[in-house]
Amino acid sequence: MKKHLRVLRTLFVKDIVDMFKNPNVLLMLALPLIFIVIYQFVDLGMSPAYLLMLGVMMNLCLTPLSVLGMMIAEEKEKNTMRTLMLCNVTGGEFLAAKTLAVLAGTLLVDTVLFFLTGFGPVQLPVFLLVCTAGSITMLLLGGLTGIVCRDQTSTGTIAGPLALVFMLPTMFAGMGGVLQKVASFVPTTATADLMFLGLGHQSWMGANVLWDVAVLAVWTAGSAVLFALAFRKKGVDN
Fold first, then answer.
1. Other beta carbons less than 10 A from residue 216's beta carbon
2. Which residues cross the membrane (predicted)?
3. 146 and 69 in contact (C-beta within 8 Å)?
4. Largest Cα–Cα distance of the chain, in whole Å?
5. Secondary structure of residue 38 in the 3-state scheme
């Protein structure tokens, strides 16, 4: 156990450093922050909670979904996974370290967005808990993308449309009609709803909370099954 933890810690530190060396990853991390700063500068009259929601949704659809797949594919391009395997690093340790590194990057951006939009530290723990729960499905799908794709270009081809599928329904759910119904089945909408609860803008009582939790649970379970099947079939060095 100690050996696995030591390997995981070493890989985690390596992946954190690699994240901030990769210009594509840095761009993905910076985009939600740039987006929010521009919106605040223009001042379109959006509430801080809604502005924070937009930033978090963009971050959810860019960082866990796109960056994780990109980082896995980058290792394939450089053939570094084979070198790690010669050092007795398992595929599980490899993926776990990358997943934790990307989760840390996601929560770092979320935290900056949180304070950037004017919220106080009292609400931060619940906010980060909701963001972590919402990130799990995206991390699984991002890992799945990295496993099935051979390079960073192909991960972008898959992750880009997926990001739009998850982000757009949530952003336009307020228009009602079909969009609102479709959005209710999307995990990013469930995350946004629970985030508003954590910020104190809605009541924790009611069927909507149970529905949002159920949506996240179903998406997480389904994504975990797909990820496990892909990992079992292809591994991490295909």
1. 22
2. 24-42, 48-73, 94-120, 126-149, 161-179, 209-231
3. yes
4. 56
5. helix
